[in-house]
């Protein structure tokens, strides 16, 4: 049997390949090309429009850092909004916080939710059925510009800025998120691998920065987001949230009773430190 390979197509001249040990699902949905396959190194892998979205083996890093950093920094998050996140990993981690009373998740593609429930069940681990979760199938940019509710934390777990995900990197989306955030609320978003996609951070600074008193980034190394550490956009009007001590974060983390495999208070605080090449690109604005 010839084992074929899956070549990620995010970058023209560089990319990662996975042996396709078994294709579990491959279909063009209403919005994007969805494939879910088995790989001997990373377990079950999901890709959209040729770009790796998540894998069984390393998903915990991204999902823990995109949720526990903003929620524990905020300190009293009761209502959370997730944009995208169709695999359910973000929803699972948010709902581990007993202090969170309500989560609305706005995902554009029902097929991603359905197929990830079926082929990546440990990502959501039942989170979609949690009584606190409200799942909305819609375009995130329309939702945040029409929504009348407010949220303490907004997490944009979106695809890259192309196809349906492009609007989630627009000023209109950021303006909508600002209007949906409570006072002192926190917005975070996946913002690409800074070494490979520095223009994504510069664009985010230009478009997101004007709406908030404090706009920066934090980061974590996620093996299958190739090319270096993954950047997460950060935005809030509470400038103290990015300066909190390890002791304060540790107290909140221990009170949450959450066990993690990547996140810890020391990493939380350290993740806001950025390399010179990123600081330089942002300073030039
Ligand atoms: N962790 C991944 C990453 O960092 O690239 C993202 C994972 S998640 C699968 C991305 C989700 O964003 C997908 O489920 C996709 O359908 C959803 N999405 C893309 N554009 C969207 C939009 N405009 N509104 C809501 N959801 C969107």
From TrEMBL:
Pfam families: Spermine_synt_N, Spermine_synth. The active site is at residue 157. Signal peptide: none annotated. The keyword Transferase applies. Residues 4-237 form the PABS domain. Pathway: Amine and polyamine biosynthesis; spermidine biosynthesis; spermidine from putrescine: step 1/1. It catalyses: S-adenosyl 3-(methylsulfanyl)propylamine + putrescine = S-methyl-5'-thioadenosine + spermidine + H(+). Keywords: Polyamine biosynthesis, Spermidine biosynthesis, Transferase. Catalyzes the irreversible transfer of a propylamine group from the amino donor S-adenosylmethioninamine (decarboxy-AdoMet) to putrescine (1,4-diaminobutane) to yield spermidine. Belongs to the spermidine/spermine synthase family. Homodimer or homotetramer. PANTHER family: SPERMIDINE SYNTHASE, SPERMIDINE/SPERMINE SYNTHASE. This is Polyamine aminopropyltransferase. It comes from Marinobacterium maritimum.
């Amino acid at each position: 049997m010839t084992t074929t390979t899956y070549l990620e197509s995010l970058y023209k001249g560089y990319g990662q390949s996975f042996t396709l040990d078994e294709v579990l699902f491959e279909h063009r949905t209403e919005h994007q090309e969805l494939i879910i396959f088995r790989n001997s190194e990373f377990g079950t892998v999901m890709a959209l429009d040729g770009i790796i979205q998540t894998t069984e083996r390393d998903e915990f890093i991204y999902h823990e850092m995109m949720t526990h950093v903003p929620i524990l920094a905020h300190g009293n998050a009761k209502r959370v909004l997730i944009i995208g996140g169709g695999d359910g990993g973000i929803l699972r981690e948010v709902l581990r916080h007993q202090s969170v009373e309500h989560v609305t998740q706005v995902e554009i593609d029902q097929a991603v939710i359905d197929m990830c429930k079926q082929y990546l069940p440990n990502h959501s681990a039942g989170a979609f059925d949690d009584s606190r979760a409200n799942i909305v199938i819609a375009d995130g940019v329309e939702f945040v510009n029409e929504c009348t509710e407010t949220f303490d934390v907004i997490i944009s777990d979106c695809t890259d800025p192309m196809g349906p995900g492009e609007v989630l990197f627009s000023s209109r989306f950021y303006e909508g998120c600002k209007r949906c955030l409570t006072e002192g609320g926190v917005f975070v978003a996946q913002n690409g691998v800074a070494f490979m996609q520095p223009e994504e951070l510069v664009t985010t600074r230009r478009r997101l920065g004007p709406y908030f008193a404090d706009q920066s980034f934090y980061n974590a190394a996620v093996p299958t987001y190739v090319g270096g550490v993954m950047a997460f956009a950060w935005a809030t009007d509470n400038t103290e949230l990015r300066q909190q001590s390890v002791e304060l974060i540790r107290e909140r983390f221990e009170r949450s009773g959450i066990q993690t495999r990547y996140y810890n208070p020391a990493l939380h605080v350290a993740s806001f430190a950025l390399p010179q090449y990123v600081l330089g690109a942002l300073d030039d604005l």
